Amino acid sequence: YSKSQSDFLVKNLNLRECERPKVLLSGSIAGVNLDRFKYDLKKRIIARKELNISNSKFVILFVSRLNYSKGIYTLINSFKDYLLHFKDDILLLVGPVEESEILKTLKATKNVKHIDYVEDTSKYYQLSDLFILPSLREGFGSVLIEAASVSLPSIVSEIPGAIDAVEVSKTALTFKVKSEASLLKAMIYLRKNKKLRKKMGKFARKRVENKFCENDISNAFFNFINGLIKDD
User: Fold this and answer.
1) What is the pTM of this model?
2) What does the alpha-carbon distance between residue 33 and residue 31 come to, in Å, rounded to a whole number?
3) By the 8 A CB rule, do 85 and 64 touch?
4) In this structure, how many other beta carbons lie within 10 angstroms of the beta carbon of residue 168?
């Protein structure tokens, strides 16, 4: 759990404070491997060559299952309008398609590349310039801290869980859930502001180092379980 998730459950399930879900550190379940998810120019160049993407292209990344609840239609429709402003940019979708209608939508949209399920997503963060998670609902949004660890700025929908994985205006911009206009505005704003993207990316990496290192979170989880055992 993360703080906003815990607050949401207390409010909507009418839980007492003593029943509040426990939040460990800043809320991630597993944290991030800071060595595997780290910006590397050489890896970026290699990854782009593998997908036949030139170094000059601007790439927007989405990593997750492709279905309605992940906001994939909001993202694709916003990207169609986005192409009216930046016709050569690429939307890279990494994850399995779970709804047949999505395949039709992808085929009908220009400049979209789709990679099915992969075990290691790290290289796709490496080759990208901006990360977007447009979910309608989310647990914590581990992909957001993975992106941050590779110094990527993000755009995320304003939902419990996901907003704890970012720091608004410092590592990410937010938009109203399911609002294509709101998402498009954020996309264009960050696309036009290279200095801001770089600044947000650097801050995002530092934030992950301070709050979401997998070793720190593993230790916190171990101490939590150990405390439960001792109480018994």
Assistant:
1) 0.86
2) 7
3) no
4) 11
